[in-house]
UniProtKB/TrEMBL annotation:
Source organism: Paeniglutamicibacter gangotriensis Lz1y
Domain of life: Bacteria
Stated name of the protein: Threonine aldolase
Cofactor needs: pyridoxal 5'-phosphate
Keywords from the UniProt entry: Pyridoxal phosphate
Length: 353
């Protein structure tokens, strides 16, 4: 007999990775568990996932399931670069601050990071590091990496994405999109997944899943013909070729083969909007960035944040500035939001008193 380890006190706003697995994904995993399937991606689930991905991203798209998001980013970027290549990214990019140097140490590439005010690159910001071609003393800037939605919860519009890809392509650079929260961005903008990626000229995509309700696994989606050949070998070289790939594919299929990606992202976005609206006008707390997807960034006294965190887990974003991040998930409830807002106002009242 086993003991349940469920801890209701862990419900909070630290990360959408804290959430459980969507029941429909669990059902898909159980169904995929029946019988035998060809290993290493030769299974029916991976084949069907390929058809679904093509329906979203176009006839030239190919999906390569991998175990996690860091591997997706590193492997995708490797496919765009020679050994002497470099990647221009925002200073706040996940690949720059949250992947323990994996792009540089494992991927063998140089990151050229650019400070931004809102987590978003522009052609002008890219130009700060897009120079020095032919100089053997400088890592060659041959790729741009952007995140949608960004690490600050902000969104690139379709016009902004097109401006970046057109500029990069004109410079001979290719563009990678970290789409860990791609679904949240698509829902917020009211566009399709392909419209926001293939339609704006993105070359390769890290397609998220764990932040939107699956248990494990992400996908690399090639959107142009260039990276496809190398990806087959890079995935294996990076230890990301799953023998029982059907269990990653079945989850991504449950998410993107139906409207589950849309309904789950719509819900988490709506919960963030509810939280953001509840914060506005509250004495002692202010929003740092506009709430455009499923993250809320706010500034409040550290003492209030520390006391609040004893009941609701969440992360400091910039403690020196008193900034915190609150993330909403597919399973965040209105009751969660309302309880959190009540506790927040209670702690702020104590500070004022």
């Amino acid at each position: 007999m086993t003991t349940a380890l469920h801890d209701s006190s862990m419900r909070g706003f630290a990360s959408d990775n804290y959430s459980g697995v969507h029941p429909e994904v669990l059902t898909a995993l159980a169904e995929a568990n029946g019988g035998h399937q060809v290993a290493y991606g030769g299974d029916q689930y991976t084949a069907e996932l390929g058809r679904v991905i093509t329906s979203h991203f176009g006839e030239h798209s190919t999906v390569f399931p991998v175990f996690n998001g860091t591997a997706a980013n590193v492997t995708a970027l490797q496919s765009l670069l020679p050994r002497w290549g470099a990647v221009v990214c925002a200073a706040s990019a996940h690949i720059n601050v949250d992947e323990n140097g994996a792009p540089e140490r494992v991927g063998g590439m140089k990151l050229l990071s650019v400070p931004t005010t809102d987590g978003k690159l522009t052609p002008e910001l890219i130009d700060q590091e897009a120079w020095g071609w032919g100089d053997e003393h400088r890592a060659q800037p041959l790729a741009v990496s952007i995140t949608q939605s960004t690490e600050l919860g902000t969104l690139y519009t379709l016009d902004e994405l097109r401006a970046i890809t057109e500029h990069a392509h004109n410079l001979g650079m290719r563009v990678h999109m970290d789409g860990a929260r791609l679904a949240n961005a698509a829902v917020a903008l009211g566009v399709g997944l392909g419209e926001m990626t293939t339609g704006t000229g993105i070359d390769i995509l890290s397609l998220g899943g764990t932040k939107n309700g699956i248990m494990f696994g992400e996908g690399i989606v090639t959107l142009s013909e260039g990276p496809v050949d190398s990806m087959k070998y890079l995935r294996k070289l990076n230890m990301q070729l799953a023998s029982k790939m059907r269990f990653i594919s079945a989850q991504l299929l449950a998410l993107y083969g139906t409207d589950l990606w849309r309904t789950s992202a719509s819900h988490s976005n709506a919960m963030a909007a509810r939280l953001s609206a509840g914060v506005q006008g509250t004495d002692g707390v202010e929003l740092v960035y506009p709430t455009q997807s499923n993250g809320v960034f706010a500034a409040l006294p550290n003492a209030a944040a520390d006391a609040l965190r004893e009941r609701f887990p969440f992360y400091d974003w910039d403690r020196a500035a008193g900034q915190v991040r609150w993330m909403c998930s597919f399973d965040t409830t209105e009751a969660d939001i309302d309880a959190f807002l009540a506790a927040l106002k209670q702690e702020l009242a104590k500070i004022r008193a």
